[in-house]
Amino acid sequence: MSDIRDVIMIGAGPSALTAAIYTTREDIDTVLYEKATIGGLAAITDVVDNYPGFPDGIEGMKLAAQLEKQAERFGAHIEFGEASRIRREDGVIVSTIDGVDVKSKALLIATGSDYKKTGVPGEAEYYGRGVHYCATCDGAYYRDKKLVVIGGGNSAIQETLFLTRYASHIDVLIRSEVKASDVLVNELQKYIDNGQVTLHLNTTTEEILATDGRVSAVRIREAGAENTIETDGVFVFIGLKPNTGFLEGSDVELDAQGLIKTDEHYTTSVPGIFASGDVRSGATMQIASAVGEGAAAALALREYLDDLNRQ
Questions:
Q1: Beta-carbon contacts of residue 308 (< 8 Å; ≥ 6 apart)
Q2: One domain, residues 216 and 247
Q3: Closest residue by Cα to residue 197 from 228, 236, 153, 165
Q4: Which residues does the annotation mark as catalytic?
Q5: What is the tens place of the pLDDT at every residue in 207-264?
Q6: Domain coverage including residue 228
Q7: Which helix (H) or strand (E) element contains residue 257?
Q8: pLDDT tens digits, 155-176
C-alpha cells in the first residue's frame, strides 16, 4: 500500500460517511479518522424525525450505524484518532493524527460541531458528576429525579421533551425567550400544564453547586433576583461550536464563527483540502443537508484526483 493515501477524511459523521460511500464505490482509497463517536452528534440524538426515507423517524444511533456499515461495505477504512495539525507540503496534504503524520493526495474535513459550554463556575468541575450535554446518553440515570435544563432553542426543548420520560420535574433556564419551533413549544406545553416542566424566562445561570462532589443545586438570577434551584443534574443545550481548533495556524480560512470557508465546490482556501457538513460556513446544521454536502464534496474530490492523475 502506498504511503500516500488517495483521500483522508477527518471526522466520521453523516457527511464524511456519505462522502466515503461515494469515493470508495469508485475505488478511491479512503481512510476516515474519528476522535469520538462514529456518526457524530447524529449518533447521540434520540430520534431523527426529519431525515428522508423514514416516515416514523429513526434512532440516531441506528442511522449512524447504517451509514457506517454502508461505507465499510464499499471499502472505507474507519479508524479512531484525533487531528492536531493540517498542512500542505510539496503538493501533498499532511495530517497529524495522534502525533503521527499521514499523507494523502486530498483531504475532506467533516469534523462537525460540538456542544457549547456556559463557562459558569461548577460546569467543568462537575462534568459527568451531574453536568451533562447529551440527554440520550445520560437521561436514564435520572429516573424520578429533579433536573435543570439550560437553553431555550430547538435542541434544548427537544432534549427537555426526551428527559420528561425520566425526570420527576424539569426546570428550564432560558436567558431571554423561548426560541424553539412552534411544534416543539406546543408539545412541551402539556408538560408545563401538568407541572412536570417549569420555564424560567429572562434567567441566567450563575453557578452550579455540589454537595459531596455531585451536583445538588443551581444558583440563578431570575428577573433581577437571585435564587437557588435544587436539582440532581444539569443538562446544557445552548448551541454548537465548530470543531476547527486543530486548524489554528493552518492556511485553511475560517469565518468569524470559526467555520471553514469554501467555494461552491466545497474547496477550501488550500488546494486539495475540502470541507462539508456542519463545520462548513453556510451549512444549515441538518443531517439531510450534511449528507448532501458529503456526496457533492466526494464528486469534487474525484474531479480533483482525476486532474492530478492527468498531470
A1: 105
A2: no
A3: 165
A4: 134, 137-138
A5: 999 999 999 999 999 988 999 999 999 999 998 899 999 999 999 999 999 999 999 9
A6: 131-236
A7: none
A8: 899 999 999 999 999 999 999 9
